[in-house]
Amino acid sequence: MAEIIIYTKSHCPYCVKAKQLFKMKKVSYQEIDITDNASLLEEMLAKSSGRKTVPQIFIGKQHIGGCDDLYALNEQGKLDPLLTVYL
């Protein structure tokens, strides 16, 4: 099964907000903290087509984007269908 991955940095309020939404939806995720880790930052940049902000969120192979993108999907009713395999 594919997984939910969130690239984060410590002290990032948007990362906390994104993780809170997943907790509210009762889905687990893998958090990859890129704080002070150049190789993980490079990994995130490669997977996200160069997006440097955190969080960067992936559901399966789909790049969701950041926190605002995640919440927009939720408000549009498009997040739950992506998460059904994880519930």
From TrEMBL:
Q: What's a single GO BP term from this record?
A: cellular response to oxidative stress
User: Is this entry keyworded Electron transport?
Assistant: yes
Which intervals hold domain Glutaredoxin? Answer: 4-64
Show the GO MF annotations.
glutathione disulfide oxidoreductase activity
Keywords in UniProt for this one? Cytoplasm, Disulfide bond, Electron transport, Redox-active center, Transport
Which Pfam families does the record cross-reference, listed alphabetically?
Glutaredoxin
Against CDD domains, the record matches this protein to:
GRX_GRXb_1_3_like
One cellular component term from this protein's GO annotations in UniProt = cytoplasm
Q: Say if the entry is tagged with keyword Secreted.
A: no
Q: Which domain of life is it from?
A: Bacteria
Q: Sorted alphabetically, which SUPFAM superfamilies does this protein's record hold?
A: Thioredoxin-like
For this protein, the parts annotated as crossing the membrane are none
- Which protein family is it in? Belongs to the glutaredoxin family.
Q: What does this protein do?
A: Has a glutathione-disulfide oxidoreductase activity in the presence of NADPH and glutathione reductase. Reduces low molecular weight disulfides and proteins.
Q: How does it assemble?
A: Monomer.
- Its name, as the record gives it, is Glutaredoxin
From the broadest rank down, the organism's phylogenetic lineage runs: Bacteria, Pseudomonadati, Pseudomonadota, Alphaproteobacteria, Rickettsiales
